[in-house]
Amino acid sequence: MGSITIRNLDDDVKRRLRVRAAEHGRSMEEEVREILRQVVGRPLPARNLGQQVHDRFAAIGGFDLPPVTRTAPRAVPELE
User: In 3D, which of 7, 37, 9, 35 has the Cα closest to residue 20?
Assistant: First the structure.
């Protein structure tokens, strides 16, 4: 098992952690382990970029882009 040291922890954060640990009947160290298990212990589901863009704009109702007028591709030049 690994261990870490957290330096420069804000006094208010430490106080709230102590209170939270007491509410759950755990030591501060065990409370931190539980918080870390909950936050980083489970893998995030894979999402692709298209789904992320859709999710971002779905909350505001999305939007429609005007259709793009396409033209025929240019002919391949003769390189002789």
Answer: 35
